[in-house]
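Possible regression after last week's pipeline update?

I re-ran a chain I had predicted before the update to compare outputs. Posting the input and the new output here so someone can diff against the archived version. Not blocking, just want to make sure nothing changed silently.
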Amino acid sequence: MENKNKIALVTGGSRGLGKDMALKLAEKGISVILTYNNKADDANEVVKQVQQSGQKAATLQLNTGDIKSFGAFIEKVQGVLSDTFGTDHLDFLINNAGMGHHAPIDQTTEEAFDDLMNVHFKGVYFLTQKVLPILNDGGGIINISSGLARFSMPGASAYASMKGAVEVFTRYLAKELGSKGIRANIVAPGAIATDFNGGTVRDNEQVNKMVSSLTALGRPGEAEDIGGVVAFLCTEDARWINGQRIEVSGGMNL
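New output (post-update):
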């Protein structure tokens, strides 16, 4: 199998999109280290599911907004790589962890802005920086953005601005890491029916209908629509995709 012994680190892998990414990576023969913020039981359940599919898996706690904790986190990653996988390097980093935020510009607090920036941009930037020394040449980085970085919906200004910053950062990663054969790409989901942002897309019928009406394929996305695209980008079939933004939104706001 082409992906034998390949390992991916997925942040925010205990539920929603991250969980589906972990499971789809395992289907492609890629082992997984997934992080969780506070849902340890959910993370352990995903580890079991990955192991049942025949791949190795491990889980570590990480708050991606706590940048000062990254040094200690990388040491733990190195310990897990050694103990569980018998190696000292990763092949793929998937920066998925995040949280939503909804407020008009005139009601967005500096505290909320800083929380979003730390998790969605500063955390992504510096976690990636810390992972680079243990990322194999020929590997890959996938950052998760949002359809909201392309089209605008009132209330998402701060969140979407961070995602826009990550999209620019990803192109710079692709440029600077190309000499090592490391690819960097963006997957940008549209509106997804998960418990993200309080489950709004999934549970609010009005929002559900609005999203469906704006989407060419006529429904909101599901977590299962996204993970396979991320897993594909970690395969040899995607070896020539680099510095690209792939929107996975069913055709929202075309």
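Follow-up from reviewer: compared with the archived run. Helices lie at 16-27, 40-52, 70-85, 110-131, 157-177, 200-203, 205-214, 227-233. Marking as no regression found.
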